[in-house]
Design brief:
Among the domains are: 120 residues, CBS-domain (Roll); 78 residues, Uridine Diphospho-n-acetylenolpyruvylglucosamine Reductase, domain 3 (2-Layer Sandwich). 34% of the residues lie in helices and 20% in strands. The chain contains nine helices and twelve strands. A hairpin with a 6-residue loop joins strand 3 and strand 4.
Length: 286
């Protein structure tokens, strides 16, 4: 006589027993974020989750405790367009920065009129810019306080389908801006796209007889070899570190400094480091 298949109740009991065995591995439920993170780290040590997953989980937990003021791009480094600028004046700025969204301001940076999407310029460029008018293409600027938590803002970004917010301080002045990419990078690490320079390769590109575009991460020894000079590196390995020391502060876009027979102008930087420089090779002083 053939055996009868196990009943559904027996299957449920078996599944429940398996689940209980898994839970028995923990002496108690985590009572704090630290205890939860310790359990997850042990899971990573036991190969239950990989290190990349652990990093993402840690980033997600950190985001819940962070505020916008901790990651925003400060007002001094915002790339903005003035409402009275002509396309001929602001298009080079759009191209050079390679951003996709730009705050449009009135007389001062505290007077934000709206957000310009670079993609909205394409139809206008094809049809001619003679009758260009910001009013026809500006998107509403979303204003948020510095104290807003990142997990709350990320939820708003997703639900309301916008990617940039203007940050204000307690007095109502503009203190910076933040994008959805800034928050995601706090979770998964730096996000690069096809417009970003390859960090794995040195980058020095000549653009005229005496001007060059240079990655800030270019090793000083490679700089010296390229220009056949002996730039003193001091305590730094990269050109960006050398330039930072010369400035004595975090420089903003278009600031310049002279080192030996070179002029270094900042093309792109954020609130943490310099990314791209324009280098002019000057004639030696007599």
């Amino acid at each position: 006589m053939s055996e009868e298949p196990p009943s559904r109740n027996e299957d449920v009991k078996a599944s429940t027993s398996w689940f209980e065995r898994i839970l028995s591995g923990f002496t108690s439920e985590p009572k704090s974020r630290e205890e939860l993170l310790e359990i997850i780290k042990r899971s990573a040590s036991n190969k239950v989750v990989d290190q990349e997953a652990l990093s993402i989980i840690e980033g997600a937990l950190d985001v819940a405790n962070q505020q916008v003021r901790e990651i925003m791009i400060p007002r001094s480094q915002m790339v903005v367009i003035k409402e009275d600028e002509s396309p001929e004046e602001f298009l080079p700025k759009v191209i050079e920065s390679a951003h996709s969204r730009f705050p449009v301001i009135g007389e001062t940076i505290d007077d934000v009129k709206g957000i310009l999407l670079a993609k909205d310029l394409l139809p206008l460029i094809l049809n001619g810019l003679e009758n260009f008018n910001f009013d026809k293409i500006l998107r509403t600027a979303n204003i948020i306080p510095e104290s807003k938590r990142l997990n709350v803002l990320l939820k708003e970004f997703r639900e309301n389908r916008y990617h940039m917010a203007i940050v204000i301080d307690e007095y109502g002045g503009i203190s910076g801006l933040v994008t959805i990419e800034d928050i995601l990078e706090e979770i998964v690490g730096e996000i690069e796209d096809e417009t970003d320079e390859d960090e794995g390769e040195d980058f020095i590109r000549q653009v005229s007889n005496s001007d060059y575009i240079l990655k800030a991460l270019t090793p000083i020894e490679d700089f010296n070899a390229y220009f056949r000079v002996k730039m003193n590196n001091g305590d730094f390995d990269t050109v960006g570190g050398l330039v930072m020391r010369a400035f004595g502060h975090m420089p903003t876009r278009n600031e310049s400094v002279d080192i030996s027979n070179f002029t270094f102008r900042v093309l792109y930087s954020d609130n943490r480091k310099i990314h791209l420089l324009r280098v002019s090779h000057n004639a030696p002083k007599k």
